[in-house]
Amino acid sequence: MGRQVGHRFPTREFTVDPVRVEEYVLALGVEPEPGYRAEPGAVVPPGFFMYVTTYGAEPVHDALDFDMLRTVYGGTEIEYRHPVRVGDRVLVTPEISAVTEKDGKSGRLTFVELTTEYTREDGTVVLVERSNTVQRS
Amino acid sequence: MALQIGDELPEIVTPPVDRLRIAYMTVAMRDPNLVHVEDAYAAKSGLPSAIAHGTFVTSYAGAAVSRAVGVDAVRRIRVDVTAPVFPGDVLRTHAVVTASEPAPEGRLLTVDLTVTNQDGVRVGRGTAAVEQPAA
Q1: Rounded distance between C-alpha atoms, residue B36 and residue B10, angstroms
Q2: Considering the entire predicted model, what is its pTM?
Q3: What ipTM was estimated for this complex?
C-alpha cells in the first residue's frame, strides 16, 4: 500500500514527442491557438500535462489500489512556471499529496490528490500538476 | 488584446466529442481505463455508456484561454470536472475576466471558466491566471 501522504514515486523521464501533442490536438479538434503546429519549439498546450500521459497510469493506480470501476477523475490544477516546449525532455515525479475520507450518501468517499512535479535536468521546476481523484467504497 | 475585468473571451463550441475523438484521446494519453472505450465496462460503474475523458473538459477550458491570450501566457489553470461527458456531447466554454492585479511585467488576470454541454448541464468549472504584458 503506497497510499500514504508524502509517498513519492520514482522519477521517470518524459520527452514531449511531437506525435503525442499532435494526437492530443487531433482528439480535441480545437487548436490551442489558431494555426498551432506541434513542432519542436512550440509551447505545449495547457491541458496536455496529465500524469497518465507523462508518467503512466498503472504504477500510480496500482500503488493507490484504485479500482477504476469505482474511481472518478475530479479535476486538475496546473501551474506553469516556465514554458515547456515540444521536444523538451522533463523529469516527472508524482507524489501522493493528500488523502481525505468523507462519508457521503452512498458510503465512504476517498479523495486522493496527486501532485506531479516536472523538472529540468538542473532541478528547475517547470510545471506542477495537481490531479484529484475520488474513489467510492 | 488588452483584457479588462468583465471582458468575456471568445466562446468555444466544440465539435461533437464522438467515439473517434475519445479513441484518439485514449491513444494520446496512453490511458488504459476501459470506461472510455467499452460500454459494457462502463455499465458496471452504473453509466449508460462509455464516457469521455475529463481531459476534454479541462483542455477545452484551457483552449478558450490559450486561444485568446496565447499558449505561453497561461500561468495557472484549475478545472474541476463536475459531470460526465458522453459520446456525441457538444461542449461550450464561457470565460470571463474577474480580477486583475499588478505583475512584474504587466498584469496578472484571473479568468473564471465554465464548461457546459448541449443541454446546459455544467460539466466543468474553474479559474485560470494569465499574464498580460504592459501595454
Answers
A1: 29
A2: 0.95
A3: 0.94
